[in-house]
Amino acid sequence: MKKTVFLTxxxxxxxxxxxxxxxxxxxxxKRENTFVGANGKIDTLRNTxxxxxxxxxxxxxxxxxxxxxxxxxxYIDTTLTIKKEYKFNYLRTDNFELLAFHNQGQAFxxxxxxxxxxxxxxxIGFTAKQxxxxxxxxxxxxxVPTPTTEILxxxxxxxxxxxxxxxxxxxxxxxxxxxxxxxxxxxxAYRRALASNGNFRGAFHYRTKENQYEIRGHLTKQDFFNQxxxxxxxxxxxxxxxxxxxxxxxxxxxxxxxxxxxxxxxTRVYFEHxxxxxxxxxxxxxxxxxxxxxxxxxxxxxxxxxxxxxxxTTAIFGDINDASADNKEATNKILNNEFNLEFNSKYVxxxxxxxxxxxxxxxxxxxxxxxxxxxxxxxxxxxxISFGADWNAKIKKFQLNADASITPGNSRLSGNFLKGEAFxxxxxxxxxxxxxxxxSKSANFNxxxxxxxxxxxxxxxxxxxxxxxxxxxxxxxxxxxxxLNFTNIDNYTYFDESSAPQQFTDQIAYLKLKVNREFKVGxxxxxxxxxxxxxxxxxxVFRVPEFTTRNTLYYMDYWFKGKPMLVQIGATFKYFxxxxxxxxxxxxxxxxxxxxxxxxxxxxxxxxxxxxxRTRLYFKIDNVTSxxxxxxxxxxxxxxYRDFVIRFGLVWNWFI
Length: 656
Known about the structure:
- The chain is globular.
- By secondary structure, it is mainly beta.
- The strands form 8 sheets. The chain has a 22-stranded antiparallel barrel. Strands 4-3-7 form a 3-stranded antiparallel sheet, with no helix packed on it. A two-stranded antiparallel ribbon has the order 1-2.
């Protein structure tokens, strides 16, 4: 990671040099002193002494574009909203369906599950380490008329902080480069709870003048290090629950593990490019009427996981073969090449793409770690070829999307995937979407093969494919937002009470209904989100709370003469009903079943946020009532949720 940081600064210097060169381009460059914010209001730029090059007329907020992996377009938004409050966290997403551990950068327990966007290929596993891992579809691409920077800063717990920095620049209207790095180091309130993570992203996209050739891609380097304490021991747990005043300082509480650590690393190179063979234009609209393109998508991704412990803990993990040995690194490598042919015409009502994927995978270890185990293979390796097609069409106000693929044969990658969506929007009044997902793929590799110096953590399985079917509906309007999902899963794979992987022989039947409604009266608002879940079949292995609610009452208005500051003051109440939340296993970095403890409790958070020009300031108090409420708040058995804590941070945008 040190090499990555050094490379980041070298590239940053190169880009800055290009920025100053960009300012000197052309004799017709204008001085532009206004920027239109996402709320339509003028946002004054006072870059005294600098001249900003206007690439195409007057710069507006719609010129600062963000492109998703699916090429959906949004804009850099510097406004302050209640949704921004929900997303001001380490993940930078609304974590309503997650239950965080006490320190940021640690794992999350699940309050709800989503199966409408699962991956087509099996993964390495060790899922508790991957909540903050950025996948291909989470990398963003940009197009900006002027060099643009965004900085997020947030204080850590006890010691440390989070910093997420983005710099992006267009060297021309057709070439953009962006560099991003998110770093976290947070000590935590309990012993052995240090988290130290890093996410480096470098992305680019380029197109020729007539869009005949296009290419975009990214490089990521991600690492996640955690000290693992195994939760509070029995005596410390009793002292916590009974509120022993001698242990108000949480670092005095004893923990189960004193020298355990785990590390998860990932490196990915991704690029996709296409060349337009044929193009015809409609003589009236002057837009592409039909075209034929060939394309290629390359992905090379390596993930690895390692758990280390110098002193054996047989009371937690069982018998051990060699106490002096360390668990070796489990490594997963995926190499994929996709070749596609895309046709765009009114005769197919939109875009149709035929594709073929050639995939190689390798997962495993370098040597046998435990002579007591019956494992007879070091790794899982193979190749596969898949065939598929994408279809995107728009018929009046209906948008239709479909993605299908099949991988024949009997390899670990064999299976099929189908995802379809139908979207209808009635002006700005409401929108409705229906979706269907059908997936058959192998279970994660760490459930098939795992090695450890502990005897009980060695296995070699031949599980059947996990078959998932999800039917979803969403309705969004200015009155109410709702989402309903019906999910059925065959051969659901999980870790049982003894931390061994198992496949459920019956079917999981899961229903999730999520509703959101905001009420506004003058300068006050009440934002409400309610989630209802029901597992009619398979509740013994698939566990979720029946109800989860979040209610935020807040005040929002401009302060001071001339309205220089927009303030947002409020409180958030969150509650979920009791359920047998999964236990956390630090050796596996997975959540396992447990039947001894039910978790369910309310929390209150208070916030004071403000916006000054393009800077959003956040001041938050987590779990306000913890000092006088019952000590029943846990993220997982033996892992207490965070106590009363004050944190602050900001998000700052520069448009040079």
